[in-house]
Design brief:
Strand content: 15-25%
Bound molecules: 1,3,4-trihydroxy-5-OXO-cyclohexanecarboxylic acid
Length: 147
């Protein structure tokens, strides 16, 4: 019963990367909050971060099919990676897209997600809590036996 939590390019720099936009927590601290919620929900989470598009796709191909669902913040890949979109579209398990910031309230180039059309849903602008909300949703969806 493992949910994958995947973070893309530059999210390893959270904590010092523009904290007014992304908050002051490090990725490790955010993962700690997700793990805490996972314990309460009695599910397992597996974390992965890479700055490389190919490594993220390899991870999704290898670990995605046997997981219960995927929570992904693709960073800037959100806005242009059709390869990531294809990898996500190929997964049978539900995927939730998460953004710390509200991408619709930012620069025009961030207002478009090329992966939004192949995921279950998107959480954007709720900071670190977005990951926790996504996990709660996926666990609830599974407990109710589907969407
Ligand atoms: C982000 C938004 C993206 O536009 C940006 O490139 C990121 C982080 C977010 O979490 O708000 O790296 O996905």
């Amino acid at each position: 019963m493992t949910y994958l939590v995947v973070n893309g390019p530059n999210l390893n720099a959270l904590g010092h990367r523009d904290p007014t936009i992304y908050g002051s927590l490090t990725l490790q601290q955010i993962e700690g909050k997700i793990a805490e919620q996972a314990r309460k929900l009695k599910v397992d989470v597996a974390f992965f971060q890479s700055n490389s598009e190919g490594a993220i796709i390899d991870h999704l191909q290898q670990q995605g099919p046997s997981s219960q669902g995927v929570i992904i913040n693709p960073g800037a890949l959100t806005h242009y990676s059709l390869a990531l979109r294809d990898a996500l579209a190929d997964l049978a398990v539900p995927v939730v897209e998460v953004h710390l910031s509200n991408i619709y309230a930012r620069e025009p180039f961030r207002r478009r997600s090329v992966i939004a059309g192949v995921v279950r849903g998107q959480v954007s602008g709720l900071g670190w809590y977005g990951y926790v909300a996504a996990l709660e949703y996926l666990v609830e969806e599974r407990r109710q036996g589907g969407k």
